[in-house]
Fold:
Amino acid sequence: MGLIKMTKYRTLLLATIGFNFSFLIWFSFAPFTGPMAEEFGLTTAEIGILASSAIWMAPFGRMLTGWLSDKFGAPAIFAIVLAYVGVFSIGSAFAQDYSVFFVLRLIVATAGITFVIGIQHVAEWFEEENLGLAEGIYAGVGNAGAAGGALILPRVFGTDWSGPLFSTNWRAAFFYTGIVSILLAIAYYTLGEAAKSEAKRQATKENTNFKGWLHTATRYGTVVLAAAYIMSFGLELSMNGWLATYYREAFNQDNLVIASTFAATFSIAAGLLRPFGGYGSDLLARKEKNILPFFEGQYREQWTFLGLCFIVVMMFAMTLAGLSGVLMNAVVVGFLVGTGCAWAEGAIFAQVPAMFPNDSGSVAGVVGGVGTVGGIVYPLFYSAPWLSNLHIGYSVTALTMLPIVALSAWVFRPEIAKIANTAGFVRSTQEGTTVASGDD
Structure:
């Protein structure tokens, strides 16, 4: 038992370090949008496209790697992703043509798919009653890698950088983070163990077929959590890639380090506070405490729903803070938006493995993959040329979230929530064929 317990916490540590760095290298471009735009001649709208493009590969990539993690085990899949991401990050440091650079950074941006690999890995080792906290620690500290990138990279690779290989700071940053990624790949493959027992490994592996994936992907629980993840994690992705530009352009803040530091306050909240979201969900479930009577008995659902509502309110507040013209108002509200993201994300991924214990990788892949769509779409709202100013995009984004909140309210009702892991929008027969249906 002692060895299992030690390996369980080693798994959590290994997954957290791997994902933290994945997040850092995923958004390593964000602190350098200014000098990159100057070198390649990019407009503000084109910077918005670059921020959006960092997410383009994530939806399909997360769905695929979630399934692959269930089938082949997390250590091998995590190591493969870290290794090729490192190689292409190194390649992007040498790119002189913007088209080549853009394609290479698209591939580097697939570092974000490691999220579902770590979710699956942690779920294979932790018990249901502690899953919310464990997944919250993993994802929360991991997501804070974006803050690490915003705080560390522009300081280590400053505007006066003059290294042995590069005189351009962002090229040096991409090269050296690529080297670290390859080293982490070796460490993960060497030290990682797929599951706490062979029985657990086999139970997970047996469900990795397309019919089983289609069944879990279309359950009410999977669909609503994926939609909720669009407006929480998708929002976080979009803000990580945009806020440094927003603070610089909307408030005429020319200091790259200061703008990146302000942006990092959001990433710190969205990342490091995520365990609070998972722990709150665990606590309500253990104590069987109702905080929203109309969702009586659905304790994790209540906690998730409150988090989603908080995000919507804070996004409207983000517009008001920007229109005030006071930079610090926007920074403070941005921190609160990050807090809402952390709350909802931790709650969502407390529900995923608890609801689907033997399909956690596949379901995490669907939820995590679909959730990244927000990171693709929302930056286009923030930088849209038809907006009167850069502050209005946050309210536009909040309006698009209201249908997701309404869907959550429907699925989280006790009569639906109790069957949300078996009933769905596609009905599965015992033979595995499917027909369209509203319920099971």
User: Anything to note?
Assistant: The first helix runs from residue 2 to 26. The longest strand covers residues 426-428.
